[in-house]
Design brief:
Strand order of the largest sheet: 1-2-3-4-5-6-7-10
Distance between the termini: 44 Å
Helix content: 25-40%
Length: 306
């Protein structure tokens, strides 16, 4: 017992000495700590990216899907809470039902500061957008540097036309280039829209997020993704994974949840997709089987190197 106590005392004393010496003016902490035998990663080395770094959550305001989608009970999970609950570092935030109000964008962005990457809505739920909304959104990255891009939700109509014209998208791209970085423009594309004449719009988008609206159609996910690769071979792509079957207004069958996650992981490791997106925060506090399985799965695979 005396030996163990002495060992603990020496370890604690060495730790205190490292930070005491490292804290001296003019002496970098790393230099002082190395002089005392502390182990640090090699200078200039960067931590390897993990699978978790490519996982996203797709969000709206808390309770935004409580009506009309058949959820078993109301949700109160906020976007940031849901990211924490699932264990993902990246978030897409979609404006829905006029929430947030235009004059509250900055306040709503504050809880997202701890996240690694945030993509903010330019075209909101249902394909709704307005010039003033876009203007205010485009100001956000100046104050919130983790906002790395913007997304256009429900962008394409049934005839293949878009919520914004190609000319408007071309002009929009000019505002996504700053002196020190390029912000990406994301767009939502559903598998049932792959046959539409959307190429002239995709030309002005940087990233495509692919979604299967009806879970019964996930049996065709592999074929549909190959169709997207032929349609847009040069675009970055992310796989959208619903946690609730919104098309059927019913729970996501677990076997279908597993299928889309397994395929997404395979494509992520192969470099065919840049990320996976889980939708969304309004399902995360309902104890759904699909959510709890996905949460466990993310915990199991998330720290694997990419």
């Amino acid at each position: 017992m005396a030996v163990l106590q002495r060992r603990h005392f020496l370890q604690a004393g060495m730790g205190a000495l490292v930070w005491s010496v490292a804290g001296r003016p003019g002496l970098p902490k790393r230099t002082a700590a190395l002089a005392l035998g502390a182990e640090f990663p090699p200078m200039g080395s960067e931590p390897k990216e993990k699978l978790r770094d490519r996982f996203w959550i797709f969000t709206v305001y808390a309770g935004g899907d409580n009506q009309g989608w058949g959820l078993p009970r109301p949700s109160r999970m906020t976007p940031a809470e849901a990211a924490f609950y699932l264990g993902v570092p990246n978030l897409l935030f979609i404006r829905s039902d006029e929430q947030p109000p235009l004059d509250q964008f900055e306040q709503w962005a504050i809880p997202f500061r701890p996240l690694k990457r945030v993509v903010w809505s330019l075209v909101g739920s249902g394909g709704k957008t307005a010039q003033e909304e876009r203007r205010r959104a485009l100001e956000l990255p100046k104050r919130f540097p983790n906002i790395v891009g913007f997304i256009m939700d429900d962008f394409f109509r049934s005839d293949g036309s878009g919520a914004l014209s190609p000319t408007e998208l071309q002009e929009l791209q000019k505002h996504l280039k700053t002196s020190d970085r390029k912000l990406d423009l994301y767009v939502v594309l559903y598998t049932h829209q792959l046959h539409l004449p959307v190429q002239k719009y995709l030309e002005f988008c940087d990233k495509i997020t692919l979604w299967t609206w009806h879970s019964k159609d996930l049996v065709e996910l592999q074929r549909n993704f190959e169709r997207l690769e032929k349609l847009a071979p040069r675009h970055g792509k992310l796989l959208g994974c619903y946690l609730w079957d919104y098309g059927a207004k019913a729970p996501m069958p677990l076997d279908r949840m597993i299928r889309q996650c397994q395929l997404g992981l395979q494509w992520l490791k192969a470099g065919r997709v840049e990320g996976m997106i889980f939708l969304g925060n309004t399902t995360c506090d309902l104890e759904l089987e699909s959510v709890e399985w996905t949460r466990t799965w993310i915990a199991e695979v998330g720290d694997q190197p990419l």
